């Protein structure tokens, strides 16, 4: 039975117990109702509203000014969102986010950006900003690793964008565990997420990765944030890619391309040019294909070299492709179509540091190997698409229309594609093949398939 309490049973202080209404009965209609955890139900701070009466304009994305990053984010940063950018050391994460805060502050006089670094000193970050041209009066910099102090900087500066570099270097004094540990990282991310949701400030977190390339820290870290991005790049190449892994506000399979230079980082809106080697004459052992990285079609060149050897165990060297698929294609060529390469060294590679992982490049690989074996070049202006099966059949791939439209935009005129691939873009000639043997006819100067399989289209690509 409820009764008056004038003295706290825990601390013994008088008059410290506040009266709260018994709401469970009012809400449920049953006296003495309790919540799922066994306590009395509480009045919510704001009542539930019909979804039709809730405004969606407060969640509109605001562009950062970095076009390729906005492409991956789904248009820009949503107020109150938390974005985690993970990548290997030295890939350019800090350089990219310095460019973001610079353009963010430059776009609107009302915008301020706060960059908090726990890994470097303020002077080191300033030197990088000078080198990349990212110095702006509305970009504030703080070298702090204590979470409470970071919150104090937020209250003083009142930014419209917060960068934390990195979440593994922050420390919450009231939480047990070492810096970068599971408990600390989870608590710090939860606190920053709560800050973003209550203030509407978008927060960009830099995260470390493990040796396997996964985001370092507890798995719940990726569940707490709204967007997870992976920043990838080869140390021998200037190309960098931001790949969406999770996105609550847009597509999770978009890819943004950048070029890392000494004076900063720049967006690459047309990365296909980096993956093609432009030459005047056709060369044996090369074939051009179109891969899909997320929703983005990318043209790439596959090169092969077949060389004689006296070594009883011929070498197989692969760069930029899956070595297992290369071995499979070589076995199909030898067993099904008489291209004997088991006693020869075979080298297969892509151009420009491109990595090809999807099976749509199988046919291009097969034709490049056959071209190098016969020392006959493929026709100029040709792109090749298709997955090769163990029986030598050429299987369909997704997004053929978008791939061919991108090839036509870059000046290619015709393509070899699998059967039932649909219509080609206007003015573009596509030839459909059912097996690898029909595709190999292009090396002999013959039509790759029967004339009734040649399709021309006057309709636009859907």
From TrEMBL:
Pfam families membership: AAA_25, ChlI, Zn_ribbon_LapB
A GO molecular-function descriptor: damaged DNA binding
**What Gene3D superfamilies does this protein's entry cite?**
3.30.230.10, P-loop containing nucleotide triphosphate hydrolases
Lon-protease-like as annotated region, ranges: 345-462
For ATP, which residues are the binding ones? Answer: 87-94
Q: Which PROSITE patterns does the UniProt record give?
A: RECA_2 (PS50162)
Q: Which family does it belong to?
A: Belongs to the RecA family. RadA subfamily.
- Name by which UniProt lists this protein: DNA repair protein RadA
Please give the organism. Rhodococcus tukisamuensis
